[in-house]
Amino acid sequence: MNSLYVEQFRPRTIDDYLCTSEVRTAVTNFLSQGDIPHLLLHGKAGTGKTTLAKLLVGNIVCDTLYVNASDENSVDAIRFKIKAFTSSVGFNDLKVVILDEADFLTPNAQAALRNLMETFSKHSRFILTCNYVERIIDPVQSRCQTFNITLPNKTEAAKRVKEILDIEKIKHDIADIGTIVNANYPDMRRIINAAQKSINNNVLELDDASIVQADFKKTILDAIIQKKSVTAIRQIIADNQVRQFSELFTYIYENIEQISVEQADLILLVLAQYQYQDAMVVDKEINFAAMLSAIKEKIE
Q1: 206 with 97, same domain?
Q2: Radius of gyration in angstroms for the set of CA atoms belonging to the chain, rounded to a whole number
Q3: What is the pLDDT of residue 208?
């Protein structure tokens, strides 16, 4: 048995999978038919895209090829590895290719992919997962049924964590589970990892750092409002081990008038520019720090 909770308790059936009613209804229909269309599953990290793809192929009769597109993203991977799989004789009537992290595929690779999706559609299906759906070219998107994968709400996430802790016979306080969920939502993978990390002698115990982390977005927003230096805000980011900034962009946008009512329009333009760049840059923290400098310049 895998010692990692995220793997040990990875859902194997749709009944165990956390998702919206729209996704649940669609997946239930696919499984009842024993067939799936081409699918494009997009959403934030840790929301269950890969889990859903594996759940689907695990519950229908098919041959499966898993490709991590962040490692194999070239035209050659499409032409030789994937085409060889889809065009050859299989053990079952249906073949399914899971293209994980498909937003890393090059434009040329995506162009080659769209032809395979049509040529071998009688016996082959493709499930693409990605964080940034805008990186998938329109011809590929139009060949897929697209679903935005997200957790239904924080309550359901907390219930799932409690189920895991109860199965593992871990003593816990509901308030501590709430703190973990608030700190990491909507990343279910991070929520479960944070819970496992906080277990000590079969008891869920949160340290001071975990409690502070639950409120780090508000702490950063308050620092922007108080016009603190970029260095001070970078320290908050470092203390909370922030690696992804998409949630922070959204949080700042939702509270933009707290920063400045008069300059809200200008701040919005800054947010839009740097959020767009966030999907492209190598070092996301530098991009976020540059945005903080731009906002500070506007409100001063």
Answers
A1: no
A2: 22
A3: 58
Are residues 141 and 174 both part of a single domain? no
- Residue 121 placed within a domain: yes
Check whether residue 42 and residue 142 sit in a common domain.
yes
- The answer to the question of residue 1 being in a domain is no
Q: Which of these, 10, 2, 53, lies nearest to 192 by C-alpha position?
A: 10
3-state secondary structure of 7: helix
pTM here is: 0.76
Q: Based on the domain organization, do 53 and 141 belong to the same domain?
A: yes
Q: How many domains does the chain have?
A: 3
- Under a CB-based contact definition with an 8 Å cutoff, are residues 154 and 185 in contact? yes
Q: Which two tokens stand for residue 171?
A: 């003593």
Task: Spell out the residues 6+ positions from residue 36 whose beta carbon is closer than 8 angstroms to its own.
Answer: 30, 56, 60, 96, 125, 127
Confidence label for 102 from pLDDT (cuts 50, 70 and 90): very high
Asked, for residue 12, whether it belongs to a domain, the answer is no
CA dist 252 → 134, 186, 192 (Å): 22, 16, 26
Average the pLDDT over 140-146 and give the result: 95
Q: Is the pLDDT at 39 greater than 90, yes or no?
A: yes
> Can you tell me the distance from the alpha carbon of 194 to that of 183, in angstroms, rounded to the nearest whole number?
9
Nearest residue to 182 (alpha-carbon basis) of 165, 206, 149: 206
Does residue 226 sit in helix, strand or coil? coil
Whether 120 is in a domain gets the answer: yes
Domain containing residue 42? 19-148
Of the candidates 196, 208, 148, the one whose C-alpha atom is nearest the C-alpha of residue 172 is 196
Report the distance separating Cα 7 and Cα 162, nearest Å.
Answer: 16
More reliable by pLDDT, 130 or 208: 130
